[in-house]
């Protein structure tokens, strides 16, 4: 689905959880709206798992967010997504979370090899949200 996990959707989820932070960066497609506010297209060039972070604009935007940081949480749902952080300099620790929503029986071993955590089927976000509580509640945890 073209618009299932576009940047607009992801950022709205983060807004709903009051989790938008200056160091949050989403590399994904964005919706293009017409004058009536109807989504009619997507941003260009089209971003997919094999070109995320490859264009000079994307690399510059991502690199500016990771200067001085060596930890990344990468979430994806395809076999190419785990490689998205490979071209980023100075990343020493990448936690790769994979979503496997179809052909689970046939693809689980492959996904277990390329992701650190694999969530299958129509799971909720309990695992993902469990990773982020200190970040989401910075003041509470004095980070």
In short:
The chain is α/β, with parallel strands linked by helices and 143 residues long.
Please describe what this structure looks like.
It is a single chain. It contains six helices and five strands, in the order H-E-E-H-E-E-H-E-H-H-H. It has helices spanning 7-16, 56-66, 104-114, 126-131, 133-136, 138-141; strands at 31-33, 39-42, 71-76, 93-100, 117-120. The strands form two sheets. It has a three-stranded parallel beta sheet with strand order 3-4-5, covered by helices on one side. The longest helix is centred in the middle third of the chain and has 11 residues, at 56-66. It starts with 6 loop residues before the first helix and ends with a helix. The model is unreliable at 137-143 (pLDDT under 50).
Largest sheet composition: 3 strands, parallel
Contiguous runs where pLDDT drops below 50 for at least 5 residues: 137-143
Distance between the termini: 37 Å
Please state the average pLDDT score. 75
What Rg, in angstroms, do the CA atoms define? 16 Å
Structural class by helix and strand composition: alpha/beta
User: What percent strand?
Assistant: 15-25%
H/E element string? Answer: HEEHEEHEHHH
| Order of the strands making up the biggest sheet | 3-4-5
Basic shape: globular
Put simply, the count of helices is: 6
Counted beta strands:
5
Share of helical residues: 25-40%
């Amino acid at each position: 689905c073209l618009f299932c996990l576009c940047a607009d959707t992801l950022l709205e989820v983060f807004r709903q959880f009051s989790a938008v932070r200056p160091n949050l960066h989403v590399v994904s497609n964005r919706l293009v709206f017409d004058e009536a506010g109807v989504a009619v297209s997507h941003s260009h060039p089209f971003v997919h798992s094999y070109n995320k972070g490859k264009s000079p604009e994307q690399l510059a935007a991502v690199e500016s967010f990771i200067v001085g940081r060596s930890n990344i949480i990468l979430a994806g749902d395809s076999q190419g997504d785990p490689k998205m952080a490979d071209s980023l300099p100075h990343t020493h620790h990448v936690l790769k979370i994979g979503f496997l929503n179809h052909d689970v029986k046939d693809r689980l071993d492959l996904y277990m090899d390329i992701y650190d955590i694999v969530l299958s089927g129509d799971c909720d976000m309990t695992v993902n949200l469990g990773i982020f509580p200190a970040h989401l509640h910075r003041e509470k945890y004095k980070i």
